[in-house]
Specification:
It is built from 9 helices and no strands. Helix 4 runs antiparallel to helix 9. It is mainly α.
Length: 248
């Protein structure tokens, strides 16, 4: 098991070296990055907004029902909702959801190209297939995912506000005061740093599994599953590492 793990780590590192080699024609890659931003990012706006809104609403309601003493001010609900959303829920939970949506797409796309010998054809005509196929996806994810996560933060906080006023659990003035209270801009920076790292992990790991797919349609499905599972595990592990490094 250890031998297999080290083999995949080594092959993954070698693939990343190929991915970040100098592109043959930069204008082609710029156009491809724009296409991938649409495919990997803009297609996810709906699901991110929907999940974030309800996630913020649930956080607000749970916090309100757990405050059973008058000694804790109501603005604490807004404060805790903001901190939970910014520090953990939006960057980590939404990235895990994107790992399922984006990771499966990347792995299945590259896996299909591998088993149908399209990657071999690209290599034959003198183009580095790793750079041409994976590099634009990584750059697109690194650029668009922070925007998605920022949108997720806003939608989650708004969802908490709507839940608070519709249920009557917290007045708008108290919730807004809690959102503003003890705010530190570094929390946003910390969340966006995590998001960029997670975006790279999602696309690179899923791309690795798709790029080295062997067999037929069944193996493409297996590669897609492995890409989602392994990128999700990597997100959880690096979440701990980055939290220790950036908040300690």
């Amino acid at each position: 098991m250890l031998k297999g793990f080290l083999f995949h780590i080594g092959r993954y590192i070698l693939l990343m070296r190929q991915v970040f080699k100098r592109p043959e024609k930069q204008s082609i890659y710029i156009r491809q990055i724009m296409v991938e931003i649409d495919n990997l990012g803009l297609d996810s706006v709906g699901i991110v907004a929907f999940i974030s809104t309800f996630m913020g609403a649930v956080l607000c309601i749970q916090m309100a029902f757990n405050i059973d003493t008058p000694f804790i001010p109501l603005y604490t609900i807004g404060f805790v909702t903001r901190q939970s959303v910014v520090l953990e829920f939006s960057p980590t939970i939404i990235s895990l959801i994107l790992a399922g949506k984006v990771g499966s797409r990347v792995a299945s796309e590259l896996g299909t190209m591998r088993v149908t010998e399209q990657i071999d054809a690209i290599e034959i005509i003198g183009i580095n297939p790793a750079t041409y196929l994976i590099f634009p996806k990584i750059i697109a994810a690194v650029l668009i995912n922070p925007i998605l996560i920022t949108m997720s933060m806003v939608m989650a906080i708004m969802g908490g506000w709507l839940a608070g006023i519709l249920t009557g659990l917290v007045p708008t003035s108290e919730y807004v005061y809690g959102i503003k209270a003890f705010f530190e801009s570094y929390d946003i920076i910390y969340a966006l740093i995590k998001t960029v790292v997670f975006a790279f992990l999602i696309v690179s790991i899923s791309g690795y599994h798709g790029y080295y797919t062997k067999g037929g349609a069944l193996e493409v499905g297996a590669s897609s599953t492995k890409g989602v599972v392994h990128s999700s595990i990597a997100i959880i592990v690096f979440n701990l590492i980055l939290t220790q490094l950036l908040l300690s």
